[in-house]
Amino acid sequence: MDLQERLNEVRSRIAAAERQAGRPAGSVQLVAVSKTFEADAIGPAIAAGQRLFGENRVQESQGKWPDLKSEHPDVELHLIGPLQSNKAADAVALFDVIETVDREKIARALAEEMKRQGRTPRLYVQVNTGLEPQKAGIAPEDAPGFVALCRDELGLSIDGLMCIPPAEENPGPHFALLAKLALKCSVEKLSMGMSGDYETAIAFGATSVRVGSAIFGAR
Ligand SMILES: *Cc1c(COP(=O)(O)O)cnc(C)c1O
């Protein structure tokens, strides 16, 4: 299969999962995760109509996306990897959605940069649903308070929650937990599901799925 065929396959599986879950067609957005792939591998995905892309490193993205974005201004770039506060300025300048807000220091840095640059990327809070020590994200029990702090104290609007379930566990309970937290936090967007489990995530209410290897091939 070439990239176009893999992309079509993912799109039709998303559509089938939407139908099976009784959700409206088009209610799940596909974020194509292009990390580690060069611009010449990303171009064909853009040519095939893909517009939402995810990257996990600010610096790597700065090397390939400014040109691609100026050629295709309707591309929307999502930061899905951990963010350090010394990269907040670069992230605000380049990304349209930052999915990995997970602590007060980074939230403050983003608020400051958004004010300074007059740019307002949409923000999601990353939740460490499996409480994995090596993984970024706020603890589930701290999520509602953190979202409230972002909103009330820092004036940030938080659109959604994001999670990466532990690799070796059944992801369903993690997706269910994130959906429950979204209600508690009054956020509408749920970024969950990757190549191996995006259909499950759609069944649990994902509004966007982050799919890399099923589109671009193995990294
Ligand atoms: C790499 C990555 C993905 C995509 O993973 P695949 O298994 O290749 O689909 C999704 N989300 C995050 C946060 C990632 O870092």
TrEMBL record:
GO molecular function: pyridoxal phosphate binding
Family matches, as CDD domains: PLPDE_III_YBL036c_like
SUPFAM superfamilies per record: PLP-binding barrel
Domain Alanine racemase N-terminal, first and last residues per copy: 7-218
Residues with N6-(pyridoxal phosphate)lysine modification: 35
Family statement drawn from the similarity comment of this UniProt entry: Belongs to the pyridoxal phosphate-binding protein YggS/PROSC family.
Protein name (record): Pyridoxal phosphate homeostasis protein
Native source species: Rhizobium aethiopicum
